[in-house]
Amino acid sequence: MEGIHINYVAIVVAVVVNFIVGFIWYTPLFGKVWAKENGFDTSIKPTGGQMAKGMIFMVIGNFFMAYVLANNIAAWSYVPGVSPSPLANVISASIFTWLGFFVPTDLSTVAWENKSWKLFGINTSYHFITLLVASAILTYM
Hints:
By secondary structure, the protein is mostly helical. The chain contains five helices and no strands. The protein has one domain. It has helices at 8-29, 31-38, 48-76, 86-112, 117-140. α3 packs across α5. The longest helix is centred in the middle third of the chain and has 29 residues, at 48-76. The chain is globular. The relative contact order is 0.18.
């Protein structure tokens, strides 16, 4: 059996695209509602340093997610008797990763941090969209 091939260019593309998706999701689409649900004062703007720190951590997190997802998708190609279509790879990688890792964490914020279901919906749907986008890029590139 040959080694798992990871396309690092696809990982970088997935990181960049998901950074853009995050900006759109948490700024024009749901930014005000998200801030309100988190109890943030929207009249106080974060400093440049706070923004830079947040963006750096977001890029690092997106890299980890894309790298692990790429390994997960590649590993499925070695399962005997399984030869799913690329679209099936995208959908199953996204759904199972989301259900197994993101939804439980997002539910914990409702249960233990008293966050609203509205915030749960915003965050967990963002996580699912980013997984779909990354899975598609990693599968088709």
